[in-house]
Amino acid sequence: MSATLGWLIAGPFMYLAVAVFAIATLKKVLTIAAMPRHLRWDLYPIAHEGPEGSAFQKAEFWKRPRHYNLACELAEMAEEILLLKRTFLYNRKIWNFSYPMHAGFYLITGWIVLVALGAVAEVASGLKISTASTVFWAQALNAVTVVVGAGGLALGLFGCLGLLWMRYTDEDLRDFSSPVTFLNLYLLIALFGVGLAAWLAEDPSFVLARGYAASLLTLGPVALPPLMTLEALLFGIFLIYLPFSRMLHFAAKYFFYHNIMWDDEPLVSGGGLDKTIVGYLHYKAEWSAPHLKSGGSWLEQATTNPAKPKEEGK
Amino acid sequence: MKHKVRLKDIAKPAEVLCPLAATDLDPVPGYEEQPFKPAKPDWQEKYDFSLDGFSALGLTKPASKEEEDALVDKFLRGLEKLFTRENNWTFMQPTLLSTDYCVRCNTCNEACPVYVESGRQDIYRPNYRSELLRKLYQRYFTPEGRLLGGFVGADVELNWRTIYRLAELTYRCTICRRCAATCPVGVDNGLLNRELRKLFSQELGIAADGVHKSGTMRHLQTGSSTGMTPAAFLDTIEFIEDDIEERIGRRIKIPIDKKGADVLLIHNAGEFVSWPENPAAFAILLDAAGIDWTLSSESMGYEGVNYGTWYDDFQFARVAVAQVQAAKKLGVQRIVVGECGHATKALVEIADRVCVGDLAIPREGCLPLLEKIVTSGAIKFDPGKNNFPVTLHDPCNMVRLMGIVSPQRNVLKAITPPGCFREMPNAGIMNYCCGGGSGFAVMNTLNFPQWRDNVASRMKAKQVLEAFKDCLDPAIPKYYCAPCSNCKGAARDALMNHYGFRDKYNIIYGGLVELMVNAMVDIPKPFISWEDEF
Ligand code: SF4
Ligand code: SF4
User: Fold this and answer.
1) Do A284 and A253 reside in the same domain of the chain?
2) Is the domain of A289 the same as that of A157?
3) B236 Cβ contact list (under 8 Å, min separation 6)
4) What's the pTM value of the predicted model, to 2 decimals?
5) Region B220-246 average pLDDT
6) B286 in reach of chain A (CB within 8 A)
7) Which residues line ligand 1 (CB under 6 A)?
8) How near does any CA of chain A get to the CA of B371, in Å?
9) CA distance B436 to B453
């Protein structure tokens, strides 16, 4: 690989990848957030209702103040995100590999923060952070960065290999996997695997990584050794691909929980939600089954009776 | 036996994709499997049974290539509408998220009673139909699906068989959403199933007869899905008043159309027809507790069901709006829905974003009110009168989908002696459907009931046996308490008639209010009897 190509990957391509990731993820998230408020489709217990779990358990619930305990909601989400609670409870076989893979991602995210911190600390203090550091905080930061980074890569690789093995050997899982499912796993295996190799062969105490981070932050990107360049290429591809793949479920999950299962906001006559829904009632619906009036507004349709009521009984 | 059916097979010209047999099913202790009765030859000739040998929809086979093409065209038009704001603001966000972010981990599979009890047949996996929806949507409407086809999974062929089998498949799920409660991402296969039912109903005019023609359409036509007109309703109330007098020795005047009452009670009208002792028990309790209440004789005001909940947003909205309008006419303070799970969820929860403006009047389920009656001390109960084993069925709509779990338990604890009330396994939030959910309890055409009783209700049968395992001796009378009309329908058809629980084990079924009245100190004779035909 030529030095120029290496620099192009480590520098401009990495900036491009980060920008695409940030913009595309933001766009996806905003698109989901801008979708209309749906009819209620709660799933209980609702975390922010606290131990009671549901306002409906009490007679004349509307006379009571609405429970909204954000701490309970966040705690439940944290358990799900950090421990993969439901997978643990209902699918231990998958959890055995899915959890290491997710833990790998969390650790690598933490590692990126640690490397960036190290880079800033180096610039600010003029000290070099490495195993040879004589200052305590520098030594500690170095040790934590190594454990988190190498641990994250190893766990991620183990988890992805396990999931790949399961997808090949479990007939049921294989039926539900398309080539792109395998491609995703191969990409992640390459990402974690090359990362691990680069760490072992080229940068055991992440000195180069810290220097690279500092160069990116100060807008003067430097070229990297071959394995690290390959890792930068894979990471860039991963970042660009992520928002367009189902791996974005990490962001979608927030909406699943917060905006669907736990969206129990009651409608109050004249309130904001009431006005929003009234706005939707003017939408024209084009469904064309015989009992509907294609092109009529939702309001018209909801107040039309397709089966003439018999009056003679009254 | 497990029939291996891959997703792509759905379009195959096979006569029956997954020929389900009774021997495939997971055994029920003490129950001798009966072979399925084959569909009658004249049915087979006329209708499509090509999914699993059963038909819930009575779909007539297309007669020409033109008819087949028209079906495909319509399906695609409907599929597109599910993902557009104007046509599906009601559920677009959940539909899109559940379509896009499933990670194919199959965690949901084991949560589904239909899949598990069928002997784990592929076609009944919760994500089988969702995956078909995804693949078809991708293939026809996303750039990656159009460009990359099978590489991204868009590899299912769309022909009339795919459409008919998928339509039938949407009526092999009770929309109990137990699968959704286990999905690590939050994907809701129950919701996607309902969206597919919507597509079929709202675009192709395909829906199960029990929920549409003799469900919402009859409801909108006559005032009740039972076909009961206001005049017939008034006659029934008179009959119930007579019945109460006979049972408790005094006449109660059931308030009808009382303007400005505190509570408008709306029952599932199936109670008046099949279990009049339930509205009778409500009348006795509310009267004794001194509650200012009324029933409505207005068309739509005496029927709480809303079968639109299961298959069609417009029919849902029409029914809900008309029900609330009937309450508004009376100027009541609140609507209380009787013992019916889906009716409670439909009117109290889902309709919350349909009943806008001045239709937003307070609505609640009956269980918290019943708990309040017990805890207020307004009525004296003698738990000793309910001295027999009782187990409680949790209607999915009330527990998992509304979170109402403790009121019914608090009532039972107060009206039964210690040791009589026993939970069934998986009680509460993770309870299993009775098998009658999503309209199954009222779907009785062709050979569908055979499938329903054998497959959908099977897990419930096992739960009940497990709850009563220490007292199965028929000398001990037992009570299966199901505070929901549809669940009682399933109990009657499946547990009693199909699995023979009454004859074999002396188990009867009924609601919660009947047990409450049975324990009332002021009522001289037992209200519940093992001799009566329930
Ligand atoms: S619906 Fe959920 S549990 Fe089922 S396969 Fe998809 S992600 Fe897994
Ligand atoms: S909603 Fe219930 S019946 Fe339907 S797939 Fe999920 S668990 Fe099975």
Assistant:
1) no
2) no
3) B228, B272, B273, B276
4) 0.97
5) 96
6) no
7) B 102-108, 127, 183, 185, 187, 189
8) 8
9) 9
